[in-house]
Amino acid sequence: MGPAARDDGQLGALVRLRWTMLREPRQRRAVLLAASLLPLLAVVAVAVGQVAPDDPDIRFNFALLAPTTFASFFVLTVISPASSAGGSELFPSDQLVAYPVRDRTVFGSTLLLAPANLAWMTHFLVLLGVTSYVAAPGPLVALAIVTTVTYAAAMTVVGQASAWWLEGMRARRAGRWSLRIVSAGLVAALVVVQMSGNLTALLNNLPTQRVAISAVQGSEAGIQPWTTGFRPWLTVVLFLFLIGVAAFYLGERGCGWAQGRVSDGGLQPESRPVRRRVTAGRDLAALMQVDRASVWRSAPLRRGALVMALLPGAIAAVTEPRWDSLVLLTGLVAAGAGLLFGVNAFGVDGPGALTLEGLPIDPALRFWAKALVILEFCALTIAGALAVGALRADGRPTAAQVTALVGATVVTSLAVAAFCMRVSVRSPHRSDLRGRRDTPAPPGAMIGYSARLAWRTTWIAMLLSIVALAPWGWLPLAVAAPMALLAGLSLTRSAAMWQDETVRARVVSTVSSG
Amino acid sequence: MSFVVDVSSLYVQFGTVTAVEGIDLTLPAGSSVALVGRNGAGKSTTLRVLAGVLPPSFGDVRIMGLDVRADRQRVKERVGYCPDVGGLIPRATPWEHLALAARMRRLAPGWERRAGDLLERFDLGGAADRVTAGFSHGMSRRMSVLLAAFHSPDVLLLDEPFDGVDPLGVEATMDLVSEARLAGAAVLISTHLLDLAVQACEEAVVLRQGQVVGASPAAELAGAEGAARYRSMLA
User: Fold this and answer.
1) What percentage of chain A has pLDDT greater than the value 70?
2) What span, in angstroms and rounded, lies between the C-alpha atoms of A233 and A238?
3) Which of A26, A115, A289, A353 could form a disulfide with A512, with the two C-beta atoms 3.0–4.6 Å apart?
4) What is the pTM of this model?
5) Which stretches in chain A have pLDDT values below 70?
6) Out of A276, A348, A505, whose CB is closest to B53?
7) d(CA A404, CA B42)
8) A54 close to B (CB below 8 A)
């Protein structure tokens, strides 16, 4: 048996172990359902693109935007795993120290889980929808979709590979500073390009233009000769495939290099003292202080919040969005923020959950402290995303657009807090998010949470983006109020569940287990 | 005689598993008892019930005459509990742990002095403002012990307080136990380390499979003869 086959065996074994660890049929059904949702939605996205009204102006605009959409997917595939120190793993690395896990297995597991990410899924579906719409209608749209899927796969491998190399660089001070300087330089360059009015020209000349054109050529191949139809399509698809294969081998090496690098300690803020603060005067505020510290002192959570606050807004800004379409951002960002830690809110206490439970505290206060911290975390990241997205927004917002943005921020944050607290109480997991690649719950659960959160927040945001078109400023607030009330009721029900000492004991035992 | 800790026919069940099966236990003020036994004997579960962290399935558990089910909050005010699994919030500092405890336990102004003193005694003064995620196992144990004793509780529950702790830390813990007893507190220590249990406590209760299988003065379990007797109770 060759080395490659042996490595594949390791990954398969880890996947099977993860599957075995889903003890209840209910959990397995939920994971299967969530995993089958992406192909299902992909088919829907392609179908919608094909049957959408054929307006030449709109189709032209979409064709103009397609290269930018492809490019923003690439940016996402690099930034998303880079912000989580290489991406999510099937098992936290500390649980695998006793096994000779190969670099290829680690890299493969992060690659396997890359699509289990709300932003990745959303963007992938948008790519499919745009491709399907700009491609020629008919069965040959399948060729256009092959281009897009190959592009998405190749760029995901490239992004994952880059993330591991960046992670290796971050192990040393010089590497961290180099990355900061390069990042600042890129942002500065973008600002200069924007200020000089050259951003649109730049976006119109992105290399992804070739990919978008190839997709269209593929769909029109049947009506053109080989040299102007199939051949350029096939060339681009093969090129993308080769990029993906090369990136896989480079990524495997990057993963090994990053894991073998001894950190100089700069990534362990635990070793540095923090400023001593005055304890808040009220019990609830004092508990919130501790919960905030648990969130904001975690480097992966800080980075995650920053990415959620900047990336979706920046991608939206590139498209010079309408104010009502910015409302859609709130749903995506709120769901992403909730997935960073909120879905296992008590997990951040780790073993300290036992000590907290031993203190003479009203249990309700512990619940509401967590809920409020999730709420403010979501609201802050949404505010950041909206601020960035609004930089290139189209014109001045109407009263209804402003109230829709405010209403969507409040309601999506509340809905996320309500969902997070419910699953935190019902399905706790041991994960104090100490590791740089830790997630609040195992991969299967995270996929389920992503799908359920996205479903909820997308509907809320879509509804409010529609009412943002109304001439009445009060309408979005009137629509938001009952949804906020429902989320509030859900929170109250979860708080009542938390009051049950048996439920609390189960949560505390789970999150504090060693 | 009234007992500070009074446990009668305690049962704790997790689904179909019975972790504690009919334990009776009493501790008068100023006493110290070691709970010893093999892994899974029910020691930590018993301590969690006494701390008000885990509800008992059946039985009567009273702390200072208060029922742990009915008077959970008041029980927690009287108890100081060091859990067996670290017991610290990863991204909070020792000082923040102490400040939160002072706030929630309504300690009088001036608690900072005792907090500083305890941190120095447990050799954690220099780490008071570092998040506990970076602590070694021994440091976490020491911090957990001092946090349990910080408010001078009537009942001090220490679950594996010596596990992975260096000799100076063990000494500081021993001193703390002695002080608590002198102040009239009842001290219950769960540990695998028989020698240290004998040293720290006057009585020892041996648990096996959730039941009490022996109780004697701790000194009787000292030395090779005591160890042999202890092993015979575990078999």
Assistant:
1) 95
2) 9
3) A353
4) 0.86
5) 1-8, 221-229, 265-271, 514
6) A505
7) 56
8) no
